[in-house]
Amino acid sequence: MANILVAHLNKSYGKNSAVNDLNCEIKSQEFVVILGPSGCGKSTFLRMIAGLETVTSGEIKIDNIIVNDLEPRERGCAMVFQNYALYPHMTVAENIGYSLKVEGINRTERLQRIHNVAKIIGLEDFLDRKPGQLSGGQRQRVAMGRAIIREPKLFLFDEPLSNLDAKLRVQMRIEIRKLHNRLNATSIFVTHDQIEAMTLADRMIVMNKGKIEQIGTPEDIYRLPATQFVAGFVGSPPMNLLKATVIDCSTVKIDDQLIRVPQHDVAIGSVVIVGIRPEHVEMDDNAGNNVFSIDFIEDMGSLRLLHGKLGGHDFVVQSLSGATQQLGQFKVRIASDKIHLFDVATGLRLQI
Amino acid sequence: MIERTPYLDLLTHAILILLFIISVLPIIIVFIASTHDLPTVSRVPMALWPGNSFFENYSHVWNKSGFGPKMLNSLIVATMVTVGKVMISAITAFSVVYFNYRLRFFFFWLIFITLMLPLEVRIVPTYAVAADVLEPFRTILAWGGVVLKIPEINILNSYSGLVLPLVATATGTFLYRQFFLTIPDELTEAAKMDGAGALRFFWDILLPLSRTNMAALSTIMFVYAWNQYLWPLLITTDPNFATATMQLQKIVPGPAFGQPPVWNEAMAATLMVMVPPLIVVIIMQGAFVRGLIAVEK
Q: What is the pTM of this model?
């Protein structure tokens, strides 16, 4: 239940800038996911909000109070770490209740609250165990319990699922989202996994090289990526990004392939980046205008990825698994209204 | 590693047993000597079977030669050194590892360099300081041209004099530092998020985690302090502050000048002096080994 305002936030280590002029607003009760490749500054950003890193310049406001110089404990946020960071010598109950103990809350109330939290995270039978005797998923739950018990205004998650195996990760992802809804809290979740980001987020912040590339709902970001980086980073399989020459206001040419694209006002003859999602290409022997040669097929069960070449460039097409496919040359139809154009130099989106 | 090498096993066991006998034999001889009366002990060759003067010798040493109070002195000194050392090194290592201040490396090296200067090397300046504790300050002030009347405090012939110079060394600090460096940063940050301040973190998290370390350090320091001979000999002239190891040296020459040493009693005293460190090592053994080799996961 806190809204956060970040203005012109910078962080640099000596001459290296880790985070560069971040501006964003996070509304109360929102679940915001910060997505980006490793080293893009997303964890640094989160840790600055938490108070674990100092701010070089700019300001962070939580509930309209500038928190730049406040200690972590005074900011009212709780954090879940990637390696859980449980105290190895304390039992699960002591781990969960440690912040209350520090606050000086008496034993009876503490036990009461520990039990309530244990019920929420489903670890009532494990309260006397040490973290070393728990499985990865259980440790993750303890780490979440430790965050919940303080009833914070703001939850911060620093890649909390990356140490879990694939199945558990999906399960914990759902639990985190349910928990967020139930506690009416504001959550900020850092991850490099775009599926995690798409499924969890109300809004996403996509970062690259210390800068925000785009802020928006998962749908917006998927449908209308603002930059070439976002287009290539979000989506699995990733978008095909190809260099093309502009022929006229609605056609571009990739090697020998003419492709119809949405209306634009780029000068004829200049070079642009064309983005085509694999699912927006269809195999069509009759109405297909472009030639795609398949040289490798990946079967994913529910769908198939056809790897090959379109006019000399690597290209991926997604097709349903029902149809039988072979290697060779085929005609494809590209949904021209779903093509994205980006500037070669700046990487920014070109059409409206 | 599992291997089946019966001959090699036999050989290694033979070597182990041989070495064991070699290391234990002197102690057995000391024990045998301590159970005979003086004429039997002095005969050549010495008897190799325990005699029947055991209680007589030991009680004589304990009562007449005044080993009781000296053992107590040793125990007080060794315990104080151990406790002082464990506390001081934990807190200095905490400072050096967890705080960022301007002269951090200067202080670290200052501490570290004392590793190369054991007590025996710096014994003269240490004695000078013990004889007049505030002398260094007086000298420094004098360099600055300030002459103040600073009282003379000497800690010769006192427990503080016996203990403090042994506490002020870097071994423990270093042991703790190495251990603290293995504690993941996230644990520190989690404590910060939980609202624990620096001292709270030190007390609630660092100290419990370094329990095995403490056990190892305690064992080493207790034995080290108990076995000190040169320093107590130098600093105490008052027999009330004499330690057990010093008392041993008084027994070996005969009761009067020119008489042969009372070997049976000397041996009994030696064994008695060996007992307390032995007990400490036996009790702490498990934790000691763990503290020196492994870090708890």
A: 0.79
